[in-house]
Amino acid sequence: MKQEIAIQMRDISKTFGDVKANEDVNLTVYEGEVHALLGENGAGKSTLMNMLSGIYTPDSGSISIHGKQVHFTSPKDSIALGIGMIHQHFKLVEVLSAKENIILGEKGGFFTKGKELSKKIRQISDHYGLDIDPEKKVYEMSVGEKQTLEIIKVLYRGAKILIMDEPTAVLTPQEIKRLFQIIRNMRDKGCAVVIITHKLNEVMEISDRITVLRKGKSVETVETSKVEVPNLIEMMVGKKVSLSIEKKNIENKRVLLEVDNLRVINQEKKNALDEVTFSLYSGEILGVAGVAGSGQKELCETLAGLVKSDKGRIFFEGDNIVGKTPRDIIQLGIRMGFIPEDRLGMGLVGTMDIVHNIILKDYQTQPGFFLKREDSTAKANEIVERLDIQTPSIYTEVKKLSGGNIQKVLLGREIDSEPKVLITAYAVRGLDIGASYKIYDLLNEQKEKGVGVLFIGEDLDVLMELCDRVMVLCNGKITGIVNTDEVTKEEVGLLMTGGSLEKEAAHVKSK
Amino acid sequence: MLKVNKRAELPKDREAIIRVGAILCSIVCAGIVLAVMGFNPIQVFREIILGAFGTQMRIQQTVVKAIPLVVTSLGILVAFKMKFWNIGGEGQIMMGAFGAALVALNLPSTLPMPVMLLCMAIVAIVFGGIWAFIPAYFKAKFNTNETIFTLMMNYIAIKWVTYLQFGPWKDPASQGFPRIATFSDNAVMPKLFGIHIGWIIALALVAIIYVFINHTKKGYEITVVGESLETARYAGMNINSIIITAMLISGGLCGLTGMIQASAIEKTLTANISNNYGFTAIITTWLSRLSAPIILVVCIVFAGLLQGGAYLQIAMQVPASVADMIQGIILFFVLGSEFFLQYKVSFAKSEKTTIKEVA
Amino acid sequence: MKRILAVLMVLVLVMGAFAGCGGATEEEETDALTVGFIYVGPASDGGFSEAQDNGRQALEDHFKEKVKTLKVESVAEESQAVKNAAINLMDQGATVIVATSFGFMNPIEELAKEYTDIKFLHFSGNKMNDTNFGNYFGAMEQPRYLSGIIAGMTTKSNKLGYVAAFPYTELIIGINAFTLGAQSVNPDVEVKVIYTQNWHDPAQEKAAAEALLDQGCDVIAQHCDTAGPQIAAETANAFAIGYNMDSSSAAPGAYLTAPVWNHGAYYIEQIQKIMDGTWAPESYYGTMADGYVQLAPMTENVSAEAKAKVEEVQAKIESGEFNVFSAGDKDVLYNDGSVMIPAGTSLDRDAIWGISNPDSAMVTLVKGATGQ
Predict the structure, then answer these.
(1) What is the CATH number of domain A5-237?
(2) Which one of A94, B53, B71, C103 is separated from B204 by 20 to 30 angstroms, measured CA to CA?
């Protein structure tokens, strides 16, 4: 199967200002293989693929497709040669049907006869084992269906080379399984599939060969069957990293936070949260799992007093805190660190330095009219030292730090205030492996101190490994609270899509 | 094909080069236009500079023009620091002047001057503040667009004062000419070193606003709200109260400008008292990159340009429009350079896709 | 912040370089008397300010190199603008300041107190002092009355339109004189006035004239600074009377004549006195006999009959035999019915302007004229 070369990229370099995004990168992808492009954030994966799809032009180096050297100046050129890119964020028109989305942007597509089109779509679907209703509107589709539609869209345009940017990030384990089956089908039909990802387990499962990028350079291309996860990590990080999360069981737990039948109605007048009841204990990490947008943000904001609940009570150490101002709640010792997709913007002010970001939570307790910086400066030094934050100085703008260091500043600030309850949402979002594990260690440290940690996560593997219990949200409702020792990842995945479990009574047991 | 991309961050020396380059370009460009029009550009520039700073009298005139710009710019700064686009400086100045006139025309002229001036200033600050409070309240409560709202409030204020001037407040002693009665002497700001004491107020305010923004809790809150609303929310700040407080300060300062102009300059209230300071201050505030001390410098340069232009008109007997044009060209380049500081323009290669056989 | 300071430093250096390198062109010192003029509009506005500027030109032409004139155009009627203009003029060597608009009065009065060695001449005001601040104006009511006669004899609808800037004394006097002139030849005539609240606004003045034409007026007179009303009248096949200066070219088909200023005569006289050292502030009130106010030459549009009548009355006015504000055997009434001029009497300048007695100031319109 591996005779024909689909993509050959040689000595590709691309610089943005002072940043070398790609430097002498080599990549060879054969027809009929699934090729994983692995690397940490900022390793240059997306830049490389954007050059392949014609969005960027390389500064130097050559690209050959099916043996012919090409020079792309726009995505159109790339599509014409049968390269299709499926982005992380879908580019679909919500109000149109699947069929209409497929022909959108096609020349003369407006007059394409419906029947013929449906027939062609069915042909493609059958060929690759895809399943879609051409008449279904996009807004009625699940995330998985939308992704399938995106795939059909590029196949319809004749793509023989598919590039998928983090395709599993938004999917449930079940949907991931289905996607992998589709990818395998495409491979078997002779397509070349490139998957960009940083999830090692998936790489091992789906890919035939792996190219690892590190700091803009291609490190190595290996056959998947011949490597182990630790080798891959070493290639990605550049050094050996020990990866183990120690899950200690803390004795003498007591209830810190008790949420009783909480309901939150969002701006669209829908229930963002409903019938949410759970307890958070001291000395535990309670994970929150769920597909994106299942109510995680609303839960955090309600607990922090930023959003009003429409029903229900929240007890903190026995007192109902519903109706208290965010400031009061902070002062009670409930601290939240929420990492939004752009990292900054919810917990930190990017244009301010570390000191001023630390003042953010301190200044309110200062007496008087003037801002006092001395204590916060000392605290900043302490946090930088304790968490090993890489920064030129404590007066460096936070946005100039790397992602991991930004997140350390945020968590460091919250931890430093010695909270009783620590809510972290997406604490390791976009972090490399080493930095992620440092954050996990920090959280475990807090747990040992008796802090109740609510950990809202994205990666089920991490949730299973780190948390004592996992609470699963689906459409704003709790579909289960399980002890991580007693269930499998797949079972949690089932809960994420609204299923139920026999074992689901874990939260009752642990009381 | 031109491509415009947002820049990440420019090295400082490049930034300075672009700024200086912009100023030089504007001078060259204005010079060419002047030469085409038949003026000696070097002489024109020289007259502008001499006209602004050449003699004590001219410096005084420049300072008199700079005072309202500085005070208004400081007011605009407080709002802009919060990314609240207060375009309503004009209206706030107008209402401040109205408040000052209300006091000056109705309190007895026997009142001691400091008491009178203090009363005028307080009422002016309150009135200007109220005028800014209204859009701030609507922004906080209903998330209305403050740009449009404050702009519209300008027109209401201007029409209100025009109505007073032409109607109920028309001075019976002015033979029917639409003007409001002149303030009594105790409502007129005294002079120090030949310039009304507004300059002391302006200098003091520069220091006060600098300290306020950089060294107080409120100033810190305003900055955080401006940099990131969500962060402020997550930090438990009461955003609505911060918006309203900042706008009261912003409008209050603009109102104070109105009082200074009404008391020291016009000695009455007129429908033109804001004299575009509310809009000009947006430019000066922006150019100063929201820094109070730099506002002082920028406003003096700006006032110098205005005074130099006025002088030029007489000295070289050129039409007023020539001076305006030079100002326009300089502003065009200086503001235009801001664009190049933030965006990168490049020529995208437009060559056809070439498919070559690999040898 | 340091960067911005650096940039400003460069700016200052560049400015300094300019200031330095042009040193050769220092203004030459002469013995000429420098006179500074402040105009409310552009010097070429085709009306009020241009009439003033013609006077300035006449002054320069008369004295040649002995007088240097400077001007500042488009100065707003506000203290700040007026003072800045005057101070800049003084800074350039002006020792006589001519302020040509009523709204300049208060700041000029203040400046006169402060700068005692500078002489101030203010047009149309009612303030002066004993040392360095005089005012000047003219008996514009005289040519206005004559233009009223022409209008009264030209109209067919007996409705006259009048576009005026502001309802204040100077303009009210003009409207009343115009109305009385028209009524003297055509007792049924009616004058409709629209105030634009603006000295210089071509579009608004034109619109006001159009509104008057719509109401049936067929002669449009004006007390504002642009030819807008005349153009409107020409478009509507009606007639128009200008103001300030002879403007027959703007609307030749409609233009009849215009009451005009001849400022040059006054300026030459005053400056001569200043040179001779005999000048003292006065409140000048130039008449037709002085040549200070005039009726511009009547065009072909004016009937021979009307021309003859005008010439007859003009002769009486110039000789002092006839006062335009005088009542014959009947009282002249205000339009509210009260008496403006008792039968058999006439009003002198003070009475017209209400200088000595504010109550008699001619603040309302004469019967037959209505304003809006």
Answers:
(1) 3.40.50.300
(2) B53
